[in-house]
Design goal:
By secondary structure, this protein is of the alpha+beta class. Helices cover 16% and strands 49% of the residues. Strands 3, 4, 5, 7, 8 and 9 form a 6-stranded antiparallel β-sheet that branches. Strands 1-2-6 form a 3-stranded antiparallel β-sheet, with no helix packed on it. It is built from 3 helices and 9 strands; from the N terminus they run αβββααββββββ. The chain is elongated.
Length: 162
Amino acid sequence: MGFFDAIKSIGRAITGGGAKVHVDIGQATVNQPIQVRVKVQVADADIDISNVYLLVQAHEEVRIDNNGLTLSLGERVRDLLADGYINGITHRYQTADFRVNISGPTTLKANESYTFDGTVQLPAGARPSYNGQTCDHVWTIQAGLDAFGNDPDSGWINFIVR
């Protein structure tokens, strides 16, 4: 490996650019295992990983617009609303946050594609997804490779739980 190859390798580790990661999720139902497939396309250098993982989160978000606020809040808040400093209030409450490892340590070879299958079990008492007029319950998932530097990952993807 030459000097510039070493620099590129360090750059990939810092940015997580050593691989492209994609996650496909099957039908998600409360109290049922969810089938998940992680697809990985490795860039131009081998990657040593300690595992392939999934991060799963859910949150409830409540929104109150200006009309609902002006009826019940004090004078100062009404002034802020009237002057346009506040467009409403949003509150987010996390209802789930967990990690699932779906594969152990391995070396992913340069320019190769890999598929990892796993299952996710939602926690007891998990709530389904919903979109209401003032409140939503949203589930998200992210697949990642536990690697040196910044983990390559899929980014957060919303999914529906029934």
